[in-house]
Design goal:
The complex is a heterodimer of chains A (106) and B (457).
Chain A: H1 3-21, H2 29-39, H3 43-52, H4 57-94
Chain B: H1 6-26, H2 33-54, H3 60-80, H4 86-108, H5 115-142, H6 156-177, H7 180-198, H8 206-228, H9 231-254, H10 259-264, H11 288-296, E1 300-305, H12 307-311, H13 315-327, E2 331-336, H14 346-353, E3 361-363, H15 364-367, E4 376-380, H16 389-392, E5 411-416, E6 436-440, H17 443-455
Parallel strand pairs in B: 1-2, 1-4, 2-3, 4-5, 5-6
The chains are: A mainly alpha (106), B alpha/beta (457).
Chain lengths: 106, 457
């Protein structure tokens, strides 16, 4: 893809990014930050490409380190966001029962 | 092996990008938030699957093993972390993402075809390294592995300027020569600037810095997309960069500060340093039983939870107290300041975890008119967010910050650890007003004692 096309996409993505999050209620800022954090874990795709093209063992080692870090970002990010949001949802059925110490995970 | 032709790959990347946009939009409403997050995860799955199917990859067993290691480390931690410790976990995940972006850029240096690609590489290296090291420091501060106070030393601005100048010089050299040792040097300088950038930030401002570094990582990922010519990385990274910027500004605005002020305030003599000065004016201190009587015979109570409640892990006790009061026919709401807790919206998560219904969590704009008709405002571990100085004294550092107007309530009860001012380091005149009483102690212990006394009424 040529430079101008990439630049076009970048600029449009900036506006989409501003537009999509500008209406988020402050209640959900923490899950939003955490969700956005998970999304940039998609650097995993880049790490996989680099690791897949590595010929030199040192390059492969560094690339695999990047794969480990990126996977941690991606998987951990989505899991922790889901846990947070589960709490907003769970007590709809639980109504106002203050259950034991940690509100349980199903 | 290449099972998919490039057109299909592009279409799948487009699908993943749409998933990410829908994920961010879904997160904007509590009803759709969870689904939104799952859509985001689906997008990630599509993207990872298509990269395996489309690119000519070697070392696939190694890559799969590395992914297994990353998941095996991150998933259990994410599942088990206490909700109060969640901000530092987000910081940590953010940091490793930035680190991954920097490593990818470093390895791509050998393949860079022209100077523009090297510019993108330099940007990714520097920003990714700043995000990695900065997030590490925020993690250490939140986990209290180090002091949460601003760390400043004489000559810090000079050191910082020298490091940044060196980074700019190294970056320019890398763009011109493509030299790998210089790129490694740039990486080290990036790590140093990340540390120096976050060290002088006070504990209370750390959440804003996490949000800022989150945006940084997004930008680093976008730049790495430019390096690899990968549209998905460009779109996803830019989305996060843009949303992170908005969030950071919203957080800073809610605290009545500027992002530049937070980052560079300590260099100029520090407004976040906090103060330990204790005023000699008299206050009305009260016993758990007195507070229980006030609450138990009120008709309307608003609980204002703050940072102190989160630190003391008192959210479950607060929820129980609300339940006990409601059992007596008292109307109870929680007033949530946008920056209560350690991150914006953090208090909502903590209270949701303690099974407080979403409907009784009221946002500032919604609850402020109701303080006038409230019998008791119970302020638990909050201070600056209820300080009337933000409205009345134009010289105050928090002047202009929106506050919860608890001063309008007939009675105000503060559960506080001590008379020490909040992180803004200024006195709260409300503490000395006639309608105010104070119960000193750890927020959780105080709440438990009040709860016991309410039950005994």
């Amino acid at each position: 893809m040529d430079g101008t096309a990439l630049l076009t996409i970048t600029v449009l993505a900036v506006f989409v990014g501003f537009e999509v999050v500008s209406k988020v209620s402050s209640t959900l800022h923490t899950p939003l930050m955490s969700g956005a954090n998970a999304i940039h874990g998609i650097i995993l795709v880049g790490a996989i490409i680099v690791a897949g093209q590595a010929a030199d063992p040192w390059v492969l080692a560094v690339a695999l380190l990047a794969v480990v870090l990126a996977t941690a970002n991606l998987v951990g990010g989505f899991v922790v966001t889901d846990r947070m949001l589960h709490m907003f949802h769970a007590k709809k059925d639980a109504a106002r029962t203050v259950t034991g110490p940690k509100g349980g995970s199903k | 092996m290449s099972l998919l032709d490039p057109v299909w790959t592009s279409l799948l990347y487009l699908a993943a990008a749409v998933c990410f946009i829908l994920a961010l939009r879904g997160l904007s409403s509590p009803r759709t938030a969870r689904r939104g997050n799952l859509v985001g995860a689906l997008g990630a799955l599509i993207a990872v699957a298509s990269v395996f199917l489309s690119a000519r990859l070697e070392n696939i067993p190694w890559i799969l093993a590395a992914m297994a290691v990353g998941s095996a480390v991150a998933a259990p931690v994410a599942r088990r972390v206490k909700m109060t410790q969640m901000p530092q976990l987000v910081a940590l995940f953010n940091g490793v993402g930035g680190g991954a972006a920097a490593l990818v850029a470093l390895l791509e240096l050998g393949h860079a075809e022209n100077a523009w690609v090297r510019v993108a590489i330099v940007f990714t290296l520097l920003v990714g390294a700043v995000s990695f090291a900065g997030s590490g420091v925020t993690f250490a501060k939140l986990q209290e592995l180090m002091t949460t106070r601003p760390v400043v030393f004489p000559g810090l601005p000079v050191v910082m300027s020298l490091v940044l100048l060196a980074a700019v010089a190294a970056g320019a050299a890398v763009v011109l020569t493509g030299s790998l040792p210089l790129a490694v040097l740039l990486l080290v300088l990036g790590l140093a600037s990340g540390i120096l950038l976050v060290l002088p930030v006070g504990g209370a401002d750390v959440p804003i810095v996490i949000s800022l570094l989150n945006a940084f990582t997004g930008l680093a990922v976008a730049a790495s997309g430019l390096v690899l010519g990968n549209v998905l990385l460009v779109v996803a990274g830019t989305l996060v960069g843009a949303s992170g910027t908005i969030l950071t500004r919203a957080m800073a605005a809610a605290m009545g500060r500027s992002v530049a002020g937070i980052l560079f305030g300590a260099f100029r003599g520090g407004s976040t340093a906090g103060s330990t000065a204790v005023s000699q004016r008299p206050v009305r201190s009260s016993s758990p039983e007195d507070v229980a009587v006030l609450l138990g015979y009120a008709q309307r109570v608003i609980i204002v939870p703050g940072y102190g409640l989160a630190v003391a892990q008192g959210q479950h006790t607060a929820a129980e107290l609300a339940l006990a009061l409601e059992a007596r026919g008292i109307e109870v709401d929680f007033a949530i300041h946008p920056v209560a807790g350690r991150m914006p919206g953090h208090m909502n998560v903590l209270l949701a975890e303690a099974n407080v219904p979403y409907e009784s969590l009221k946002e500032m704009g919604e609850i402020n008119p109701e303080f006038k008709t409230t019998d008791v405002a119970l302020v638990v571990g909050a201070n600056d967010v209820v300080n009337p100085a933000a409205k009345t004294s134009s010289g105050s550092p928090i002047y202009g910050m929106p506050i919860l107007e608890v001063a309008e309530a007939r009675q105000v009860v503060f559960l506080k650890r001590s008379m020490r001012p909040g992180f803004a380091g200024i006195e709260n005149d409300l503490l000395y007003e006639p309608q105010t009483s104070l119960l000193f102690g750890d927020a959780k212990d105080s709440l438990a004692q009040v709860l016991g006394a309410v039950k005994a009424l």
